[in-house]
Amino acid sequence: MTAPLMIQLAGKRCVVIGGGRIAARKIRFLLEEGADVTVISRECSKDLQPLRQQCHFLQKDLTKDHVHTIKSLLPDACFLAVVATNNRELNDHLSDTLTQHIPLINVVDNQEQSNFFFPAYIKQGLLKIAISTSGASPILAKKIKRHLQQEFGPEYKNYVKNLQDERTWAQKTFRTEEERKAYLEKITPFPLASEHEEN
C-alpha cells in the first residue's frame, strides 16, 4: 500500500546508478528539485550528456560481481537512490545492497524492490500536482496528467506566488486565525479562467 508524500529534496544527496534515457529523466527531476546528484554509470548517453556538468559523475562499470563495492562509491549521508541500469538482475542485486545504506530506493523496472515511486506530475511554479495509479497503469497516469495540464495552466504560476505573499502579509497583519482565514478565503478564487478561455 502506497501513501502520497511530498519530500523536500533541496540539498539532499542522491545517487542514480545508470546513464541511459530513463536514468537521465530521473536525474533531471532530481536536479530540478535542487538535489545533490551523484551518477554512477559506465557510459554517458546522449540523454545524460547535457546534465553531466550538473552532477558528480563517476564512470564505473558495475557488474553483479562488483555489487559489494557500491558502498565505497556512495556519497556520505546519501538520502535516496535510483537504480536504472539496463540489466534487471543487476538492478535487483544493487537494490538488495543499497537497502542496507540508503532510506529511499527506486528500482525503475521492479516495484517490489522499490519503497518509493516517481509519480506523473504537473508543476506551475509553487503548485505541484502528483498523479499515481500505484503502478497499475502508467499510461492512465500520463493521460490524467495531460488533462490536468489543460486545467492548471501557466496562469497558476503567478497566482500561487501572489497567494504566498498575501499569506505572509496576513500572518503579520491579522491578530486572529479567524481574521486571517476570512481574508485568505476572500482572495482565493478557484478555478481561475484559463488563458485559452480568456482568449
Automatic annotation (TrEMBL):
<feature type="domain" description="Siroheme synthase central">
    <location>
        <begin position="125"/>
        <end position="150"/>
    </location>
</feature>
<dbReference type="GO" id="GO:0043115">
    <property type="term" value="F:precorrin-2 dehydrogenase activity"/>
</dbReference>
<keyword id="KW-0560">Oxidoreductase</keyword>
<dbReference type="InterPro" id="IPR042518">
    <property type="entry name" value="SirC_C"/>
</dbReference>
<dbReference type="InterPro" id="IPR028161">
    <property type="entry name" value="Met8-like"/>
</dbReference>
<dbReference type="InterPro" id="IPR006367">
    <property type="entry name" value="Sirohaem_synthase_N"/>
</dbReference>
<keyword id="KW-0627">Porphyrin biosynthesis</keyword>
<dbReference type="GO" id="GO:0019354">
    <property type="term" value="P:siroheme biosynthetic process"/>
</dbReference>
<dbReference type="GO" id="GO:0004325">
    <property type="term" value="F:ferrochelatase activity"/>
</dbReference>
<keyword id="KW-0520">NAD</keyword>
<protein>
    <recommendedName>
        <fullName>precorrin-2 dehydrogenase</fullName>
        <ecNumber>1.3.1.76</ecNumber>
    </recommendedName>
</protein>
<dbReference type="InterPro" id="IPR028281">
    <property type="entry name" value="Sirohaem_synthase_central"/>
</dbReference>
<dbReference type="InterPro" id="IPR036291">
    <property type="entry name" value="NAD(P)-bd_dom_sf"/>
</dbReference>
<dbReference type="Pfam" id="PF13241">
    <property type="entry name" value="NAD_binding_7"/>
</dbReference>
<keyword id="KW-0456">Lyase</keyword>
<comment type="pathway">
    <text>Porphyrin-containing compound metabolism; siroheme biosynthesis; sirohydrochlorin from precorrin-2: step 1/1.</text>
</comment>
<dbReference type="Pfam" id="PF14824">
    <property type="entry name" value="Sirohm_synth_M"/>
</dbReference>
